[in-house]
Amino acid sequence: MSWRDSLTSIPGTVAQLINESASTLMHVSSSLGSAVGSSGSETGGSEESGPQGGEYRALPIPASLVREQWRLIFTSDANSQDLQAAIAHCRDLVLLSEELSEERRWLVRHLVDLRYSLQELEEAQEQQSDMVVMNAIRAVVGHHFVPHHPHHGKRSRLQAAARRNYCDHCTTIIWSVVQSSYVCSDCGFLVHQKCIDGVKRVCAHVLVSERQHPISEICPEIGLAAQGYKCAECGTMLNIKNTWIEPRLCDYSGLYYCPRCNWNDSNFIPARIIHNWDFSPRRVSRTALQEIRLFLNKPLIRLEEDNPKLFVFVEKLSAVKKLRQNLVHMRHYLAACRMASELKLVDQQLGGRRHLAQSNEFYSLWDLSQVESGALTEFLQAVFKEFNNHIRSCPMCLAQAYICEICSNDEVIFPFDDGCIKCDQCNSIFHRVCLTRKNMICPKCVRIQERRLQLDRLKSSENDDDDEVSTDDDVAAAE
Questions:
Q1: Which of 104, 202, 245, 365 is most buried, with most CB under 10 Å away?
Q2: Using an 8 Å Cβ cutoff, are 417 and 433 in contact?
Q3: Where are the beta strands (DSSP E) in 17-131?
Q4: pLDDT score at 214
Q5: Crossing angle of helices 102-136 and 80-96, rounded to 10°
Q6: Is 62 within the bounds of a domain?
Q7: How far apart are the C-alpha atoms of 332 and 328, rounded to whole Å?
């Protein structure tokens, strides 16, 4: 039995009461006006205000769509997923309906109302979430704590079940089901809600901003006596007068910490990589671990300036250096190419690692770790291949190619080609073999030097002539 038949079986007063209640509960959804209009058309009809605020007479739902109304019409408590499903189903029905039919007319108008309702719902949820986050942010010693929700999403629930979270302040387990927790949006400091006011560790993001570079000395230990036998972070006494508290050395900062501030976490040390190319993990404090993670993707290390001998002894570094030099040359061609700019070729290939093609000086800790694993070499080779394919197939890039003037070969060459060399003085490109035959003397530089000598001779001869004329004039004036 349809819902229209059930309404007709109820006395008129009760049916009118049900209709009025339904219109009151579902006036937020524009689709509801259509449903009420269909029942109102039988009992006299009434005007409802639409989502745009204008007055229109609701169209009755066609009889052929009555059985589909449970998938198309929702109350005010519907969520965004319900509305998205209704929009998808309504769109499918529009495609299946006949043109200029009553069903298509009703479906198109209902589809517009559903999309408008979904947009209003999403905007309301976004404003509510922004207000909740702004109100929930708490600032303590440089940290910006926001509520931590580890159980959002199926994957997050599985990860939370496999790994326990511990409070960085009191070191106890955070039972997410019954305990509220906060996390710093800058450094990842995780803490119980009850422990926020007792946090003493300065945010690692503040330390990174002040230091600007990782510590360059290998474990600059100063000793317990210089620390006053106290923990470098919380000030806990590290002596044996009352109770024994194990002092733990941080290999990154060279300071001693108590077990609450140093959990024996292991990580590679930037200074050991720069000086010894040593990636073995060492024990670090919680502050050092968060600081190294913040430095991880920042291209701040001038490796060739800090330790140039590494490029001699580490073959992987020399290969990466050569690839980066080639990418720097390629970037000049791509920057002047209109087609490459329209395709956004550099952004597509490098993403957030544009520093790899801007110069070959700066490295990040993540770059150095990938050099050791070989991943960076593979990545740069793939980027080089894509750039090379574009430059050799693009007429605008080919127009900027060179021809070796020593051998006068018709083959076009580029500064990033193997077997080619670039003159540092005039930026001309030659075959390495051809320039070697000329004793590495650039013919263009020779021509430029000869022209300069000729100009100097002309200027000197003109000056001599001027001096002779002025001398004759002085003699004539004296006579």
A1: 365
A2: no
A3: 48-49, 55-56
A4: 92
A5: 160
A6: yes
A7: 7
